Amino acid sequence: MSKELNYAQPSLQGTIRIPGDKSISHRSIMFGAIAKGTTTVEGFLQSDDCLATIDCFTKLGVKILVEAEAVQIISNGIDAWNEPNEILYTGNSGTTTRLMLGILAGSNVSTILIGDESIQKRPMKRVTAPLKQMGAHFIGRDDAQFTPIAVEGKKLQAIQYKMPVASAQVKSAILFAGLHAEGETMVTEMETSRDHTERMLLHFGANIAVEGKKIRLQGLQELRGTHVVVPGDISSAAFFLVAGAIVPNSKLVLQNVGLNPTRTGIMEVLQEMGAKVSIRHLNNVSHEEIGDITISTSELIGTEIGGELIPRLIDEIPIIALLATQARGRTVIKDAEELKVKETNRIDAVVTELKKLGANITATDDGMIIEGPTPLHGADLFTYGDHRIGMMAAIASLVTSSAVTIDNEICVGVSYPNFFEQLSSVIK
Length: 428
Ligand SMILES: O=C(O)C1=C[C@@H](OP(=O)(O)O)[C@@H](O)[C@H](O)C1
Ligand SMILES: C=C(OP(=O)(O)O)C(=O)O
What we know:
This protein is 30% helix and 28% strand. The protein has helices at 22-34, 48-59, 94-105, 125-133, 141-144, 168-179, 196-203, 234-246, 265-272, 317-325, 346-356, 387-396, 419-426; strands at 3-5, 13-17, 36-42, 63-67, 70-76, 88-89, 110-114, 137-140, 146-152, 156-157, 160-162, 181-182, 184-188, 208-211, 214-218, 227-229, 251-258, 276-285, 288-296, 304-305, 329-333, 360-364, 367-372, 379-381, 404-406. Helix 3 runs parallel beside helix 6 (168-179), helix 4 runs parallel beside helix 6 and helix 8 (234-246) runs parallel beside helix 10. It is globular. The structure holds shikimate-3-phosphate and phosphoenolpyruvate (PEP). Phosphoenolpyruvate is lined by residues 49, 93-95, 315, 342-343, 388, 415. Phosphoenolpyruvate binds at residues 22, 94, 122, 169, 346, 388. It is found in: Cytoplasm. One of its GO terms (cellular component) is cytoplasm.
């Protein structure tokens, strides 16, 4: 369904409680299903992607009760799962698809995984190849590069794996498989990526050792159900961080934001660009840091973003590109080829759509170059069915001189179902 966004010179004021982190919500269900006993989750993100994860485990016979943000998972452990009589549908979710491949590889069930049109184009060999080295058995298009993929659960062997790509999904798929493999699995990262899997392993009582970019996990450990509190998603907060900084006369307080350092690249970029941003009420929940962030309208300057920062802000790049259109000077985003294999090719999508609004932005092989500040005007924008492109377009419309229309507002439900309600609540 298309949506017209027409805000006449708004200012943004107020407080938003940021909904649950998508990565942590997925993992809370996965670990709850693997562990023996009852797991309770608080602050769960009821978005399309996370519900796809719940649906997969329900089909495997795990009992999962969802009541708004509270979830209860009752499981007798991975060995008690049923062989499903239906195909597991992972929807639009790369995280569900790749992590499930790692989990199912070492289970004792046979299953088939399929996703939506976007998932069917996203590369899976980055997980199926190392998992095969551990003894996993997959059948799928192009040597298990693309879904649908059939998985026959097998006894696995530990692996020592040096990652060729900075990806938390690849790391996590191997760690999940390693948990059900004989011996000690060691993963060495190229760059540090989000470490929610490692932290949740600790939270569920597993023995895991992390030394710099090396992670060691002893196989065949039994996990026990526990209570998990999910912090707010900094990738969702990012849209309001940028809105608060670029919309005139604005001040926003974002509560309950996850501040795990493997995710806070956008905070460093905002500070580097001169944004008026501060953090208060730092706290810890379930092995994750949280806090409240205040942001106000700022004079911004261009910056360079690359190297180890990229995995720590990978999903925020579309909205950071919009931020850069309103900053003085040049912003260079590099080392971000991974954007090409997200829900859509996010280098092409961001550059094409921001150009329609009048931005001075050029695609490069591994990112983009933006010159600013540029006044933006309205246009009909295409989301490519990608939630992060849809939300970037909505935030852009707050600073355009005329209306922006987006072709699909529903896609925001993948990670942020109440995005438009929360946006409306702070527009004055
Ligand atoms: O592990 C995760 O929860 C995620 C890892 C990242 O993907 P990659 O591992 O492909 O970089 C990120 O883009 C995705 O939104 C969530
Ligand atoms: C890339 C994303 O998620 P996934 O890989 O789980 O589809 C995202 O949320 O931006």
